[in-house]
């Protein structure tokens, strides 16, 4: 008879994943913020804002405290091999999130939309967000993104064609709406940010994809040369808008642009723009198994 897969308890490792995501800004983000600070006018409000952000990042890392008071929606993307129970894994994730909240790595953020009551432990209906993907590898990979509320409020979706912006159903149309999204945000959502831009899909899948794109590191190139070119162009042009860090004016409005595409219905052409603030908190972990032994590594 086939032996059932012995599911490991990943709760403690997941708590550590949450701690890392909430308190340590990824190194590519920190490097980009440092570079932006050097490029802003000495003594300008933009440079001061970036200095304050970087001091905050340093203190959070040193003291293991949240980088921002809004620790956002925890979004987990889980890749797992055949045999893993996603039900058990989901329970462990919810438990880990509750423990991380108790330890103050996360602010209690899950509010009942009908009663306004905060559950107090960051668990609730579809909270935290989890997406499970079975793959053909023999280990578990978990990505975690903490998506702040302010930047979520300026994330948006367009339906092309868009007459106001003269945006058609092509990459030029995508460029126009992406720049409009940055212009409309006007620094709200805590610029400088990162854009995740999903082309196609339906309204729901397009929004989900736009956030998944934010998991790609700033220095990780787009494998599609056309999209890589568009990313560079939107990045450059968004920084010419002069909105600047926290909307104070300056050269740095956006730190990176990540674009992906989904198949769509002939009748629809959605473009979703996930705006992520400078507190682009993401962390990942790999769990390898060797018989009874389990090895966990973080990135
Ligand atoms: S948008 Fe980001 S940096 Fe601004 S308050 Fe929210 S989580 Fe913090």
In terms of structural class, how would the helical and strand content be classed? alpha+beta
Unreliable stretches covering 5 or more consecutive residues? none
Strand order of the largest sheet: 2-1-3-8-9
Q: What is the H/E string?
A: HHHEHEEHEHEHHEEEE
Query: What is the alpha-carbon Rg in Å?
Result: 20 Å
**Overall 3D form:** globular
The average pLDDT score comes to 96
Give a description of the structure.
With 299 residues, this protein is an alpha+beta fold. Helix content is 36%, strand content 21%. It folds into two domains: 11-24 and 67-148 and 281-298, Dihydrodipicolinate Reductase, domain 2, CATH 3.30.360; 150-276, no CATH class. It has eight helices and nine strands. Strands 2-1-3-8-9 form a five-stranded mixed β-sheet. Helix 1 (11-23) packs across helix 4, helix 2 packs antiparallel against helix 3 and helix 6 runs parallel beside helix 8. The radius of gyration is 20 Å and the shape is globular. The two termini are 38 Å apart. The model has no long low-confidence stretch (mean pLDDT 96). The structure holds iron/sulfur cluster. Iron/sulfur cluster (SF4) binds at residues 68, 70, 72, 148-151, 189-190, 277, 279.
């Amino acid at each position: 008879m086939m032996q059932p897969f012995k599911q490991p308890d990943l709760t403690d490792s997941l708590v550590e994943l949450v701690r890392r995501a909430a308190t340590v800004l990824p190194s590519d983000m920190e490097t980009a913020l440092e570079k932006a600070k050097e490029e802003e006018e000495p003594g300008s409000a933009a440079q001061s804002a970036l200095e304050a952000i970087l001091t905050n990042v340093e203190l959070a890392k040193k003291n293991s405290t949240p980088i921002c008071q809004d620790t956002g929606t925890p979004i987990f993307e889980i890749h797992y091999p055949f045999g893993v129970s996603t039900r058990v894994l989901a329970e462990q994730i919810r438990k880990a999130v509750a423990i991380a909240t108790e330890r103050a790595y996360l602010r209690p953020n899950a509010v009942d939309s009908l009663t306004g009551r905060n559950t107090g432990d960051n668990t609730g209906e579809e909270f935290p967000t989890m997406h499970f993907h079975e793959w053909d590898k023999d280990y578990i990979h978990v990505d975690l993104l903490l998506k702040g509320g302010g930047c979520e409020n300026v994330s948006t979706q367009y339906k092309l064609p868009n007459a106001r912006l003269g945006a058609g159903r092509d990459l030029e149309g995508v460029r126009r709406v992406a720049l409009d999204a940055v212009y409309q945000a006007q620094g709200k959502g805590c610029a400088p940010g990162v854009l995740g831009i999903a082309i196609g899909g339906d309204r729901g899948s397009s929004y989900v994809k736009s956030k998944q794109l934010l998991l790609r590191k700033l220095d990780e190139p787009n494998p599609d040369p056309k999209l890589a070119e568009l990313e560079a162009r939107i990045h450059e042009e968004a920084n010419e808008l002069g909105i600047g860090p926290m909307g104070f004016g300056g050269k740095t409005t956006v730190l990176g642009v990540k674009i992906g595409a989904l198949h769509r219905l002939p009748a629809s052409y959605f473009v979703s723009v996930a705006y992520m603030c400078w507190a682009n908190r993401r962390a990942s972990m790999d769990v390898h198994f060797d018989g009874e032994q389990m090895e966990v590594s973080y990135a």
